[in-house]
Amino acid sequence: MAATTPLLAPKASQPCLTQPPNKITSIKTLAESPGLTTIPSKYIYSCNFSDQVASDHEYTIPVIDYSLLISANPNQRSQVIYELGKACEEWGFFMVINHGVPESLVKRMIDVVGGFFNLTEGDKLEFTDKGVFDPIRCGTSFNASMDTVLSWKDFLKVFVHPEFHSPNNPPEFRGISSDYVKKVRGIARELLRGISESLGLEKNYIDETLKLESGLQVIAANFYPPCPQPALAMGMVPHSDHGLLTLLIQNGIDGLQVKHKDKWFNVNAIPNSLLVNTGDHLEILSNGKYKSVLHRAVVHDKTTRISVAMAHGPCLDAVVTPAPKLLADAENHQPAYIGIKYKDYLQLQQSSNLDGKSNLDCLRV
Ligand SMILES: O=C(O)CCC(=O)C(=O)O
Ligand SMILES: [Fe+2]
């Protein structure tokens, strides 16, 4: 019930508001409050905020050339599969270039998502979050009724596969998103074929076992307005994603950070690349070889950041377990995770507060 819960901005922490604090239904509304110079205490994310942001040249974030993955040249393909495996194992994150999604489509997708967030609160009301499996829902923070610290963001989540949904407003949303999600789904499935091979599994092992033909695909769009105290707030607190792979685009403004070797790395996106992170179900399937990456989003004082994350998961009814073939390498040949129906995991993850990898920890043997 994230968006229905009006957030009452606490008076004590709002000395700089020129108007009495109103009921805040979205971060956009709060950010646009005249005279806002400090953030309400519920948004103050203090612990470990500054923990070790690495300098940009410390390591290089992996880059995957998608055109080589689909190339007819087997040597090029095996080289990229090797690089994919290394990126998943060492980072859980990589940038994909030459993916073939037209830059103009990426821009239209970002613009139409921005158009949705700019609708009036009244227009968005019908999509107020009614629960995890509500196919179109918007709200603020992650799970505002549960979050211990509120995130400085509004969100829109739309289930687009196996059944396609779209808000009717803005009117172009349906056409643009339908085009965009199909293209991105194709890329995600091809990346997962490469990842499957990189694990020493059959090329179609992940696709077939997790029934990706009817796999879940969700648009998770994020709107991060300017924040008067960006160093105190967090756009999205550290978490891992539930599915297999998330492919993200943004409005040219960076803000994503990934954790690598105990340090946070700024993702300085290569223009027109797709930012890809591995999710919890890839960690389960690979029996812990490809760990889902912890990531977070920081906010800025003057600029609005918009990101569109496309989450790709198994079929909701698929029970995900470590691939039996990979157990040969495991300690005592035992699975490191309990198998779980994807639907049940999604319910668990989306209805709790975001807290690192605490949901996945519940499945560790
Ligand atoms: O906005 C970003 O860069 C991160 C978004 C994200 O992690 C998510 O939607 O799960
Ligand atoms: Fe995420």
Automatic annotation (TrEMBL):
<feature type="domain" description="Fe2OG dioxygenase">
    <location>
        <begin position="214"/>
        <end position="314"/>
    </location>
</feature>
<dbReference type="Pfam" id="PF03171">
    <property type="entry name" value="2OG-FeII_Oxy"/>
</dbReference>
<dbReference type="InterPro" id="IPR050295">
    <property type="entry name" value="Plant_2OG-oxidoreductases"/>
</dbReference>
<protein>
    <submittedName>
        <fullName>Putative Leucoanthocyanidin dioxygenase</fullName>
    </submittedName>
</protein>
<comment type="similarity">
    <text>Belongs to the iron/ascorbate-dependent oxidoreductase family.</text>
</comment>
<keyword id="KW-0479">Metal-binding</keyword>
<dbReference type="GO" id="GO:0046872">
    <property type="term" value="F:metal ion binding"/>
</dbReference>
<keyword id="KW-0560">Oxidoreductase</keyword>
<dbReference type="Pfam" id="PF14226">
    <property type="entry name" value="DIOX_N"/>
</dbReference>
<keyword id="KW-0223">Dioxygenase</keyword>
<dbReference type="InterPro" id="IPR027443">
    <property type="entry name" value="IPNS-like_sf"/>
</dbReference>
<dbReference type="GO" id="GO:0031418">
    <property type="term" value="F:L-ascorbic acid binding"/>
</dbReference>
<dbReference type="InterPro" id="IPR026992">
    <property type="entry name" value="DIOX_N"/>
</dbReference>
<dbReference type="InterPro" id="IPR005123">
    <property type="entry name" value="Oxoglu/Fe-dep_dioxygenase_dom"/>
</dbReference>
<keyword id="KW-0847">Vitamin C</keyword>
<dbReference type="GO" id="GO:0051213">
    <property type="term" value="F:dioxygenase activity"/>
</dbReference>
<keyword id="KW-0408">Iron</keyword>
<dbReference type="InterPro" id="IPR044861">
    <property type="entry name" value="IPNS-like_FE2OG_OXY"/>
</dbReference>
